[in-house]
Amino acid sequence: MDRRHFVQAGMSSVLLPGAVISLSAAASSAIPAAQDYFFVDDRFAAGALQGGTISPSLAPIRVQADVTPVWTGLLAGGHIEAPLALRGVTTESFFFCLKTLLGRQVHDSQISRIGHDLHLWTIRTRNGMTT
Amino acid sequence: MTAPLPPGVSAEAMAGTLEHFRRIVGAEWMFTGEKVESYHDPYPIANDDTRFKAHAAVAPSSVEQVQEIVKAANASGVPLWPVSRGKNFAYGGAAPVLSGSVVLDMSRMNRILEVNEKFGYALVEPGVSYFDLYDYIQSKGLKLWLDVPDPGWGSVMGNALDHGVGYTPYGDHFMMQCGLEAVLANGEVVRTGMGAMPGNNTWQLFKYGFGPYVDGIFSQSNFGIVTKMGIWLMPDPGGYRPYMITFEREEDIEQVVEIVRPLRLANVIQNAATIRSLVLDAAIFSTRSQYTSEKGPISASVARKIMDDQQIGMWNFCGALYGPPAITDALWTVIRDSFAKIPGAKFYFPEDRKRRPDTLIHRADTMRGIPKLTEFGFLNWAGGGGHIGFSPVSPTTGADAIKQYRMVSSRVREAGFDYSGLMAIGFRELHHVTVIVYDKTSAEERARLDKLFRQLVAEAAAEGYGEYRTHIAYMDAIAGTYRWNDNALMKMHQTIKDALDPKGILAPGKSGIWPKHLRGGGNA
Fold this sequence. Notes:
The structure holds 2 protein chains of 2 kinds.
Chain A: H1 3-14, H2 23-28, E1 36-41, H3 42-50, E2 61-63, H4 68-75, E3 79-80, E4 85-90, H5 92-102, E5 106-113, E6 119-125, E7 129-130
Parallel strand pairs in A: 1-2, 1-4
Antiparallel strand pairs in A: 3-7, 4-6, 5-6
Helix pairs in contact in A: 1-4
Chain B: H1 11-25, E1 30-31, E2 56-58, H2 63-76, E3 80-83, E4 102-105, E5 112-116, E6 121-124, H3 130-140, E7 144-145, H4 156-161, E8 177-183, E9 189-191, E10 225-232, E11 234-235, E12 240-247, H5 252-265, E13 274-277, H6 278-285, H7 300-310, E14 315-322, H8 325-339, E15 346-348, H9 359-366, E16 385-390, E17 392-395, H10 398-414, E18 421-425, E19 429-439, H11 443-462, E20 466-467, H12 475-479, H13 484-500
Parallel strand pairs in B: 2-4, 3-4
Antiparallel strand pairs in B: 1-2, 5-6, 6-10, 7-11, 8-9, 8-10, 12-14, 12-15, 13-14, 13-18, 16-19, 17-19, 17-20, 18-19
């Protein structure tokens, strides 16, 4: 299986039915000018989204714990020129893995626990993701 | 917090050495102050904040820069802690055993020097990750498969040198290593095996060369800084069939392992398969709170609920068949008939799995060498996100497996944690990897875990079980259990250390090996 097929397979297992925005669409369409992305772990945050506790200005990309499809299919493709502003309401491992993958690109980051399984976080990078 | 200094190094000497390093690599690649935080252990256990803290980090881009750094460190006595990519997170990440060490971050040396399809090998530098090598092979359309550990961001070289394992037939990574280049503490560069002969073209084909086979002394050690390494890659097998067999009862592990041994020895089970526990598999894609709000280890009724919901067992055997269908069909018949003797065993191929996400669908990628980070999901099981691995080795016998399981799981549960583990199947031995997930923000929980871990090490050693790998906090403790004949092996390690690194500048304390001036304990 090559990377493209792997990413497609990964997305099919990560993205949930009724997703507000599909990750595959985000990856293939024009990148938003602000280079913002907002990730939501639908297993835990759906109630907060529906109840208005979390009111994102961006359409959320719905994920589960695994950061792999987001990284290989969206962020590591080498086509994002502006710095990233990433936000999320996810499990901690999603944040940790994403921050670790971005490595020295990380300009600043913040995380706070907002529930037993959920964390609210931001990561900003110094540069874009170009190769 | 003030950056710690290593024993015997003044602030002035450290400042002068760092300035020297800065001139070697450029200011951009010298890290001090807040920038050192990324080199800290992300899952600390010790409640003493002064332990395992680097003073600074330096990132060279070439072998020549490594040589210059080593020579400067030798002149000042500043200890270096080399890391390939520093992603060995359950074992301390990039953090040094000895506080005040300067991390030698090799991640900029990330060239894939050669991938040879004809002979099936790669020659890589320390900074090459599994993601990097996988992408390279895919982009070139090479008919080669990687063998990957669970985290795809780690170093191909670093994982092999730390005796890491993956899940294909090439799962023992150091067994697949062939030829390396290392910078010694005096700055000299050596090549091992056939690489020692000028003009030779079998460096990555024949491991042993002529004379003593020394590659092993650069693994889990502090005798040199490896700068190049050959790794064998599996040819595309021409067919692939992953499978999972689930077992209902905890005690089934005894019979499962008895069945595994002859099949593995005969290569009917072709890969480094795993027998994974209920909670480990459940935790990849779900959290504890989705099933229970009870405190303490999960009850039998909760376990049953998880099994039914996720179509998994108390134990889950994940394996794969490699080769053309004529081969895999024949092997599968033997495997299926062997395990069918166990009451309640259920057999699955990926097409049988309906739930998404799913353990077998996920493991099917890993067992064919696709790098991922999916396994990190288990960190969320109980909230708090810390984890550590306790990894004793035992013979592949049912009696040892059930004894191991009962010893470890009872202690883990007594300490208030869920048992989450796997038995990774080598050719003749089991790595019983128990993953203890804990709340890294809780000082009380970390203290409880530390007490538990030391108890596990001692009790395992009393029964003759030794760990194959460990977190930086326990290297001394585990090295101390390999003490046959008045610690003869450690004395030999120390003799080699003193000969190759008389000033003790390379990774003091790695695997319990301390330089002469720091021996005697209490230095970490």
